[in-house]
Structures are given as C-alpha cells and as structure tokens.
Amino acid sequence: MLPAVAAAMFAVGVPLWIALRRRGESVRLVNRSGHADVPDDVEVIGGDARDPAFTTAVARGAGVVYQTLNPPYPERSTQFPALQAGVLAAAEATGARLVS
Asked: What's this model's pTM, rounded to 2 decimal places?
C-alpha cells in the first residue's frame, strides 16, 4: 500500500494520521523538526515544506498528500503561500492526490 504523507500536525494533522492508521494506511509525517511523539510505525521527516525539491522527495511513493500545514498566525500571510506552493509542487511531481 502506498504511504500517505501528512504534512505537519496539531489541530488537523494529529487526528488525520490517527484516522489513517486506523484504516491500515502507512503514514509519513512532515514537519520542521523531524520529531514528533508518534508510534514507531509512523515515519517523521523534518524539513522546509516551502522547498519544492524537499516536498517532492518526501512525497515520492505517496498515493495521497494531505496538506495540514499551518504557520504561526503572525507569519501566515508571508509563509502560507510558499508552503502551499511547495506541497502542490510535490503532488504534481509525484502524481499523488492532494487533499488540502
């Protein structure tokens, strides 16, 4: 089964990866630090989702990319467009379905 990539976490990302695992999906989380308090079978990769080369590399092999990134509110207007563009580039490059 192809892994699902859930970018980032918290309000939407945590319930999402929990639901995906319950369905038997493999899950790869992406966040800035590369660390998360998750079970051992959940892969966590750290990096900058604004970088299309990075997002494309971590999305390889995924059937679905879930965009749940959410920058800090004061940075939202400057950060979110680049985050969205990075995730979109990954889905386009890999052929994965994008859910945002």
From this structure: 0.82
In the structure encoding, which two tokens stand for residue 96, read together?
């994965």
Place of tokens 């604004």: 50
C-beta of residue 97 within 8 angstroms of C-beta of residue 35: no
Domain boundaries, the chain: 4-99
pLDDT at 6: 52
What 8-state DSSP symbol labels residue 74? Answer: G
What is the rounded CA–CA span in Å between residue 88 and residue 100? 9
The CATH topology of domain 4-99 is Rossmann fold (3.40.50)
CA distance 17 to 5: 9
> Regarding predicted confidence, which is higher, 42 or 3?
42
Q: Which among 77, 74, 85, 93 is positioned nearest to 49, based on CA atoms?
A: 85
Reference 43, options 59, 22, 19; nearest CA is 59
Task: State the Cα–Cα distance between residues 36 and 67, nearest whole angstrom.
Answer: 17
Determine the Cα–Cα distance for residues 84 and 57; give it in Å rounded to an integer.
Answer: 16
